Amino acid sequence: MFLTNSMFGIELSELFLFARQLGLVLIGAASLWGFVLTRWTRHRSFEKDCLVYDWIGAKLLLPFFMGVAATLLSWVLLTSFNLAKAHEGIILASSQNLATQQGEAAGPFLFIWLLVLFFGLLLKKMRPASFSQNMEWFYGVHFLFALFFMSFFAWTGEWNKEQLFYLGHSIHSIFTLGTVLILDFLFITSKFSAILKQHVYPLFPTLSKVILVGLGIDFISVALVFNEAIQLTPKFFFMQTIIGILIINGVLLAGPLSRRMLHSQKEGGKRISLSWEKIGGIAGIISVASWSTVTLVDFFANLTLTYIQLLVFYLVLVLVLYLGHTLMERFQEKVPAFLEHNR
Length: 343
Description:
mainly alpha; single chain; 343 residues
C-alpha cells in the first residue's frame, strides 16, 4: 500500500522515493568516479602521483556506503514504488499498478546486488590488499547496478519517446546531482592538504563538464515530451529559475573559478586566496542545493506550494547546507601524513 500522509501535496511515499533515488545517485556517482580514479592509477602504477589518486579512490567508499544505506532504508520503508516524475515542472502520469509490479519484480535483482555487495565487503575485510588492487572492478560493477536499478524503475513497458524521457530523466542524476556531491566531497576532503589540492583541483574542470553533459541529457529528454507534458504551474516556473541558477553557477565553476584554482596550484601549490576559496565553497553549495532541489521537487506530483514558498524553501536549504559545509570543514580530519611524505 502507498503511504498517504500528506502536507502541501507531498506524500510521505514520495519522500521515500526521493531517498531511494538519492541513494542510487550516490552509489552511481561514487562508483563512476571511483572507477575512473582507480583505473587511471592501475594504468600509471609507475608514477609516484598514483598513490594520491588511489587514496582518493578509496576515500570515495564513504559516499558510496552512504548511498547504500539510503537505498536499503528507503527500500525497506517502501512497500510499492512510483515512477519518477520529470524535472523542470514536466509531469507525465504513471500507472500505480505498473509501479507496484516493478517494485515486486525488483526483489530478485536486489538479492543479487546484496550478494555481490556482501562478497565485496567480505573481500575487503579478509583480504584488504586484494580488495584494494581490484577496487576498480568493485566500483565498475556497482556503477552498472546503479544504472540498472535507475533504468528498471523508469521502465514503462514500451519503447517510445516517453520511455526515453523517463530513462534520460532518471540516469542523468548520476552525472548531475551525483557528480556535484562528489565534487563537493573532494573539495572538502582536499581543503587542508596542499598535495591533495594539487591532484584534486585539476579534476574539477572535468567534473564540471560532466555535470553540464548531464544537464544536456536532461534537456534532450524533456524536449521529447515537452508539448505533451508541460504544465505552467508555480512548480514549473520555480524549476526554470533553479535551472537558470545552475547554468550560471556551472559556467562559473567550469570557467574562471576552476582556472583560478588551477593557477594557484601551478605556482608551487601556494594556498589559494581565502576569497577565491570562499567563492569556490559557495559555488559548490549552490550546486548541491540546486540539484538536490530539482531532484526532490521532481518527486512531488501534486505540490501545492507557491513560487515564493518554493523559493524560500530553496534559500533555507542553501543556508542549511552552508552551515553544514562550515561544520564539516571545521571538523575535517587532517590528511594522513604519508600523503605529504610522498609528494
